[in-house]
Amino acid sequence: MSFSSDLFSTAWIWISGLIYGLILFAAIWRAPWPVIAGNRTLQHMLFGATVVLMILWSMRAGISPGLGIHFMGVTLLTLVFGWDLAILSATAALIGMAVIGRESWEGLFLNGLCSVALPVSVSWLVYHLVDRYLPKNFFIYLFVCGFFGAAVAVASAGVFTSFLLVVSGVYTLDKIVMEYLRYLPLIMFPEGLLNGIILTGLLVFHPDWIRTFNAKIYIDDQ
Known about the structure:
Elements: H1 10-30, H2 33-38, H3 40-58, E1 60-61, E2 69-70, H4 74-99, H5 108-133, H6 138-167, H7 173-179, H8 184-205, H9 215-220
C-alpha cells in the first residue's frame, strides 16, 4: 500500500497521525531499551531487518495509486522482535522509504496503520492465541504463527486498506475488487511461505534470536 496526499483529505491524515502516534508511543514505552543498549547483536539485527524491509517494500506491483501489492514481512519481524520492536523497526523502514521518495510524507501515518500497525498487531494476536490455546509444539508454532499468521496479516492489511479507500470515496468497491481484492489471495500464500521459510531457518540455526520462541518449552519438554 502506498498512499499520497491527493488520495485522502486533511482530516483523514490528521486522524491517522493521532492514532499512529499513540501506537508509536506505546511501542517506544514498551521497548526494552536497556537490553537493546547492551546487546550489539540485537542492534545489528534491528538495523539489518529494517534495511531488508525497505528493500522488500520497494518491490511492488499495482495499477492505481494506493492499490500496490508487495511482500510485507512483518509477521517474521513480530515473532523475532516482539510487537514493540517490530512497530519501531517497520516504522523506521517506512520513514526510510519516504526519505528515498518511494512513499509520501503526507500519507506516512495512513501507510503506517495499514502496512505496519495492523499486520504487526494481527501477527502478535495470532501468536498469543496459539501460545494460550494450542499445544506447545514446534510445528504448531512454525506453521500457525509463521505461515498462517503471515497470510492472515497480509489479508487483514489488504481488507482494511480497501475499506479505507471505499469509505473515504477514493475508489468504488467494484474498482477495488477488480484491481486489488481479487489478487489478494494470490499474495497470501507467498507471504506465508516467505515468512515461514525464513522463520524455519532461524528456528534451526538461531532459535535464541527469536523473542517469542522458547526452545525449552517447544523442544526440550516435548
